[in-house]
Structures are given as structure tokens and as C-alpha cells.
Design brief:
CATH superfamily of the largest domain: Vaccinia Virus protein VP39
Number of domains: 2
Radius of gyration: 26 Å
Structural class: alpha/beta
CATH architecture of the largest domain: 3-Layer(aba) Sandwich
Number of helices: 10
Strand order of the largest sheet: 1-18-2-17-16-3-4-6-5-15
Largest sheet: 10 strands, mixed
Bound molecules: S-adenosylmethionine
Shape: elongated
Distance between the termini: 46 Å
């Protein structure tokens, strides 16, 4: 018998999850045709759209990024207040009933080497984490990104000013997900200031620093200096075993330091023998852009802020760049597309690295009070069209767009 699992329960869970199995009550116009040579924009409710897309895109998506309503209770252009305390249970239950079927469906779109990212703040973080643990498997959890979205102090809390939010990340199958990489910064590259026939390198002490916990006896031994004297290990252990030092002699440097003591280094080369530049593993703390960059981007494209708090496209672009190789054609999906920052991220990443990743963006068509844009969907399309025009002016050839409309069967 399977051991009982820890899972999150709420009034309405059963009905919400049963909904996933119900056939869609909507139609797609025109009939959906997956086309990796185009970007896809879908206007309509995402649950209905996801149901209609499953047969063609099941296990075909490499990256899903979503930025769902956070349940702040604030009046935004879209509904961000779930539940009415009195009648239909609490606001968390109502939010969970919205998000749960969509997450369950989302997991079906991911390829085996796929990755799911979800932005969230601390209001619904614990519930989203539990749901994702259940649907994706806790073993597929990847360290969460903490995004510093604000640097100004702001107002609104007398105890701790909230300046961060989070990006949960889950692999479809942690064993199939390739390591994330990103380029070294200019500052990091500048550290490779030595040079030999294999190219630039930096010197790293062979003596391991840090904790003494569980020292390994095979890493504690004396080395021999060029003058024949013995060099005892100056810390609790070396980083390489005696055999590795022997096998990689060319990468060992033994030099006298300022005090006249022998010091042992390894050479860390900037490029691999095949010429590939070293990358680095991204870190969980992200502070490269803030919400104001997202707003500025929108002003630049539209001349005004047509939607509050859009994500800066650089943030989404970095996530996609970590997870997909340069020049790739891996499909990306965002089914809470909002103003289309994920669309901009994919378009600009493709333009920068020669990739042709197609995106699938889904955004509801609920009316908004704006003269030019009748819905957030139209803002999304407007952004994508503007970015495509800008890139074409720069001589790039982004993939063309195809639009669909998902609407209830009359
Ligand atoms: C937090 S916003 C996304 C913002 C977006 N990342 C951006 O940078 O502009 C969430 C979006 O999801 C949309 N949305 C909410 N429920 C939806 C549904 N059932 N189907 C489709 N879109 C939905 C809202 O209209 C809103 O634009």
C-alpha cells in the first residue's frame, strides 16, 4: 500500500480537480494547429485553452513561466481578489480552486527535460509550494529564486517592508533537466588574467578552505616543492587527491608567496579544450532588475503604463536563458500572459542568441476601461507586435505570430 501523502486540502478541492477531467466547454477559432515556426497568442480563459491544447502540445513544452494573480485583494485591471469571506469559504480556498486545475494541466505540457517557473509573493507562497510539491513531486523542486523587486523603501508595513517576491521552480524530471548555465560577468572574466598555451586562466589555491567537517584522509598528504622540500597541507585538506594532482600536473602551479612560503595553485582555464567559454550556475538571489524596470519598459513601448506591475522582461528572459541552450528552438509557454512580458523576453532572447524558441501565450479577453486597448489580451498583442517591429528595424527576423480565440460554445 502507498504511504499516505502530505497534501494540502481545502473546501472545494475535489470539485476543482475534477474539472480537469471535464471536456472543454469552449471552441478554438481557428482550430488549433501547433506550428513551431510561429509564435502563438491565445485570447480567452486559460483553463479552457489548456484543455484544448493538451492533445497537440502534451509533453512538448520545455519552459513554462507563469505569473498568476497573487490574491492581493487589490483592485487591479484583472481580478486579484478571490473568495468572499462569508459565503464560499475563505479567500485561500477560492484561489486554490482557481490555480490547482491549471497547475495540474500545466504539468502535462512539460517535456521530460522541461521546467516550470511560477512567480508568487508571500501571501500564497506556502499554498502554491504545497500544491507544486504534490503535482510536480518534491524531488523535482529546484531552489527558489528570491527576486528583489524593489530597492526603494516604500510604505505600507509598520514591521518589515516587503521588497522581495519569489519564483518557484520545478523540473518535470530532475534527472532529465540539464544544468542551468549563464555567462560569466565581465568582472569574473577579468579574473582570468594569466595566460599560457591553453589560453587565459586564473589561479585557485589547491588547499581547501572552509569547514573541517568530515575531512577525507586521501586529501591530506604532503607535496614536493621544486627545490625538493616538503609542502605540508596548510589547511584540513587539499581539493584534489594525490592521483589527480599527478594526472593533471600541467594544471598545477607551485610558487613562493610574499613570505617566501611555497603555495600550490591549480589553473582554472576560461575555455574548455574545445574552446567553449566557462559558464556559471545562476544564484537563488536575483537583483538585476526591479518592478520599475518593468514599468519603464512598458512606457517605452506604449508611451504610458497600461498595466500595473508588469514583470521586467529581463527577469523572464534570464530564467529562459538559464534553462535553454543558446540558439535553441525550445517552446516556451505562459498562460497568465498579462501584458506579454514573456513574449518580449522570448523575442529578445531569440534575437540575441540566434534562437527560434516559439512562445505560446494565453491571456483572457475580459474588457478593461481603456481607449485604445479593450482588454489585457490586446495589450499583450500590442506589446508583442511592437517588439517584433523594433527587432525588424534592427535587421532581425523574429518568428511571425498566429492568433487564436477560445470562447464558450454558445
Ligand atoms: C499577474 S498578471 C500577469 C502579468 C504579466 N506577467 C506581465 O508582466 O504583464 C496575471 C494575468 O493573468 C490574467 N488571467 C487571470 N485569470 C486568467 C484566466 N482564467 N485566463 C487567462 N488569463 C487570466 C489576468 O488578466 C492578468 O493579466
Amino acid at each position: 500500500m502507498e504511504p499516505p501523502r502530505t497534501r494540502i486540502d481545502w473546501p472545494g478541492r475535489h470539485a476543482a480537480l475534477l474539472d480537469v477531467e471535464r471536456a472543454s466547454q469552449s471552441t478554438c477559432d481557428p482550430i488549433f494547429q501547433p506550428d513551431p515556426a510561429r509564435h502563438t497568442l491565445i485570447r480567452g480563459d486559460n483553463l479552457e485553452a489548456l484543455k484544448l491544447l493538451v492533445p497537440s502540445l502534451e509533453r512538448k513544452i520545455r519552459v513554462i513561466y507563469i505569473d498568476p494573480p497573487y490574491n492581493t485583494g487589490n483592485g487591479l485591471l484583472y481580478n486579484d481578489r478571490f473568495g468572499s469571506r462569508g459565503r464560499d469559504g475563505d479567500r485561500h480556498a477560492s484561489w486554490l480552486s482557481m490555480i490547482a486545475p491549471r497547475l495540474l494541466l500545466a504539468s502535462r505540457f512539460l517535456r521530460d527535460d522541461g521546467i516550470f517557473f511560477a512567480s508568487i509573493d508571500d501571501r500564497e507562497l506556502p499554498r502554491l509550494r504545497m500544491l507544486c510539491d504534490e503535482f510536480f513531486g518534491e524531488e523535482n523542486f529546484i531552489p527558489m529564486v528570491v527576486w528583489r523587486k524593489k530597492v526603494v523603501r516604500g510604505r505600507g508595513n509598520r514591521h518589515i517592508l516587503p521588497q522581495t517576491e519569489y519564483i518557484l521552480a520545478y523540473a518535470r524530471n530532475i534527472n532529465a533537466l540539464a544544468p542551468f548555465r549563464e555567462n560569466l560577468t565581465h568582472k569574473m572574466k577579468a579574473e582570468y588574467l594569466h595566460h599560457d598555451e591553453r589560453g587565459p586562466y586564473k589561479k585557485i589555491p589547491l588547499a581547501k578552505s572552509g569547514t573541517r567537517q568530515s575531512p577525507r584522509p586521501n586529501l591530506y598528504y604532503p607535496l614536493t616543492a621544486p627545490d625538493g622540500s616538503e609542502i605540508p597541507c596548510p589547511t584540513h585538506q587539499w581539493r584534489w587527491s594525490r592521483e589527480t594532482v599527478e594526472n593533471r600536473k600541467d594544471e598545477i602551479l607551485i610558487e613562493k608567496n610574499r613570505k617566501g612560503r611555497w603555495t600550490v595553485y591549480t589553473k582554472q582555464y576560461l575555455r574548455s579544450p574545445t574552446g567553449e567559454e566557462r559558464g556559471r550556475t545562476p544564484e537563488s538571489y536575483y537583483d538585476r532588475v526591479t518592478t520599475s524596470d518593468g514599468t519603464a519598459e512598458m512606457k517605452e513601448l506604449f508611451g504610458e503604463v497600461v498595466l500595473d506591475f508588469p514583470k521586467p522582461s529581463r527577469l523572464v528572459r534570464d530564467l529562459i536563458a538559464w534553462a535553454t541552450p543558446p540558439g535553441s528552438c525550445d517552446p516556451v509557454m505562459d498562460f497568465f500572459a498579462g501584458s506579454g512580458s514573456t513574449g518580449q523576453a522570448v523575442l529578445e532572447l531569440n534575437a540575441a542568441d540566434g534562437g527560434s524558441r516559439p512562445f505560446y501565450l494565453i491571456q483572457s479577453d475580459d474588457p478593461i476601461p481603456h481607449q485604445e486597448f479593450r482588454s489585457i489580451y490586446e495589450i499583450c498583442r500590442g506589446r508583442v507586435e511592437r517588439v517584433i517591429k523594433k527587432l525588424e528595424k534592427e535587421g532581425k527576423s523574429p518568428l511571425p505570430i498566429r492568433e487564436y480565440r477560445v470562447s464558450p460554445i454558445p
